[in-house]
Amino acid sequence: MNIENKIQSFIGGKKIAVVGVSASGAGFGAKVYRDLKAKGYSVFAINPKAAEFEGDPCYRDLASLRTEIPDIDGAVLVVPPAITESVVEEAAGAGITRIWMQEGAESAAAIELCKTNSIEVVHGRCVMVETD
Questions:
Q1: pLDDT of amino acid 58
Q2: What is the set of domains in the chain, with CATH numbers?
């Protein structure tokens, strides 16, 4: 599947987890969360150190989100590359099949983990631009 098809597959989903939403609301993950929410997506914040984000529940990890919301369409990762790798492993275990690695979050190892686990991966593109 080429990159444009992967982008369309990802943005066609309506329930998106955002991994890396800062509790303070100051980081880029928070900006992605707000942007997707404003565009009509159902978004779910993932941060192991926060209970809520702007009045919405914040989930510790993808596995705990999947327990409550089993039909998540994909996850946007806005974390450092070393953390991205562990999140990809977690996503595979939780049955998440689409990942968007926001620019700066990707690593060759994380991309390879996606391929190994049959996860569609988008990287090198900004999800906020592609959903306009």
A1: 96
A2: 3-7+24-125 (3.40.50.720)
